[in-house]
Hints:
By secondary structure, the protein is an alpha/beta fold. It folds into 3 domains: 47 residues, Transferase, Pyrimidine Nucleoside Phosphorylase, Chain A, domain 3 (Up-down Bundle), CATH 1.20.970.10; 252 residues, Pyrimidine Nucleoside Phosphorylase, Chain A, domain 2; 94 residues, Pyrimidine nucleoside phosphorylase-like, C-terminal domain (Aldehyde Oxidoreductase, domain 3), CATH 3.90.1170. It is built from 17 helices and 13 strands. It has a 6-stranded mixed β-sheet with strand order 3-2-1-4-5-13, sandwiched between helices. Helix 5 packs parallel to helix 11, helix 12 packs across helix 13 and helix 16 runs antiparallel to helix 17.
Amino acid sequence: MDVIGFIEKKRDGGAHAPGELEAFVRAFALGKVPEYQAAAWLMAVYFNGLSDEELKEFTLALARSGDTMSFGDELCIVDKHSTGGVGDKITLLLVPLAAACGLSVAKLSGPGLGFTGGTVDKLESIPGFNTHLSSRDFLNQVTRIGCAISGHSADLAPAEGKFYSLRDVTGTVPSMPLICSSIVSKKIAGGADAFVFDVKCGSGAFMRDHESAEALANGLVSLSKSLGKKAAALITDMDQPLGEWVGNAVEVLEAVRVLQGEGPEDVREVAVALAGAMVSLGKGISFDDGCILARRKIDDGSALEKMKELVEAQGGRGDVCENPDSVLKIAPESFVLNAVSGGRVERIEARSIGEGVKRLGGGRMELGESIDLAVGVKLLVKMGCCVKAGTPLLEVRYTNGEKLENSLPYFEKAFSVEDTNCDSSRNGEEGKRSFVLGKVE
Ligand code: URA
């Protein structure tokens, strides 16, 4: 193909002819288009965008660049995707919760990226849990018990991975058509019939304000629908970390606690809303009825029972669902960060907490590095709480003193306490605000 002409067309704001994008993706995946030309085209798209037809063709070409999963016509498979945040342990409880509501859930997940944690890493902290199922075992398990969670194989949408790495180093990540095609192509390759997107919004998310989160939610839903899938998106709060714990084993602990009816309210609210949206798509009932069903499945213990079935089906210790404290290895050494002055907690920068946990050993500083699953932090206050000088803000669980030292500056700068008159007897009311900020169907 004439790659230079292809790049010039997009540079000058033109539209690619049908078939051209598919040929370009194929040639790039085979190494026949050099990275400098692909990067030039990405930058042209960054400035001039893609039409709806171009976006569809590009997304499908990425999805079909490697293996694709197929579950046949009998099951309606529902998948969920989060745009990533700090303390986002939702998948761990949502997958069994949605399955307990009668859905078939096939969840493909990735490891941590940047300052955000990854579901695969969190699941590694359950002794024996197999995080990488073969395609056959993955399909069989979904058919048998209604759910499975597995790490992406590198053979799924491989061209997407190549483009993503290039975007990462050429300043072309924040482009709406490139983000939408990147996410939706992986979901299409995963073979589900319906997708629910959890678009995180706030200082700890990709999308920092409501307007851009809404634009991404609309883009993801309309692209998925144009490719014949059912889709919905929720916009959820990521102005501060989700829940109390951030780390790996500690997030599994919190997910179990929520299914035991004890965990923090924000995690329960977001999981119920996402399950409601999934049930609504999968069973054709209203979102509100889906949420009612999800709440019931937590309260009657069937979601926890399903989590145990999922863990055991993947070789893990099912008693993590009964005694998570004794099954999970959580670092026993702890350090408590106290407030320097009194006032209202105005901000808890999720990004800074995520960076701190990474330096504590809970995330990767380099590609392929092994991580310390036992470390993590617990937020002892949330935004809006009133504190005095000396009030504990954060409990850090660590295994290495030097890493603790490296991480502390990130934890310290995460908290902004405003010197203002403030009534600590109202701290409990903070939890009453809503963490689901919008919905796109
Ligand atoms: N997540 C993805 O998978 N792709 C993007 O482009 C951005 C976030």
